[in-house]
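Task card 7
Instruction: Convert sequence to structure tokens.
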Amino acid sequence: SINHTLLTIEQLKRSGVVIAGIVVTGDRHEESEKIIQQITGLHVQLYIPYVEEVNHAFISQQADLNREKIQRWLLG
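Output:
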């Protein structure tokens, strides 16, 4: 996941996308997160659990659970 994340960040930056932070899905891998943060300077801002099916109910649930954190993260 380190390589995938680094390549994605690199391409987003090349495309002019401003990256506010990283959202991790699935299990945490703290050592990988540390390496990604050291290389990119970006921090993991949010953790979303892995599910078999991402649907409206799951997205709504995660939005409700993380609303305040997302607002603080994006609005400062």
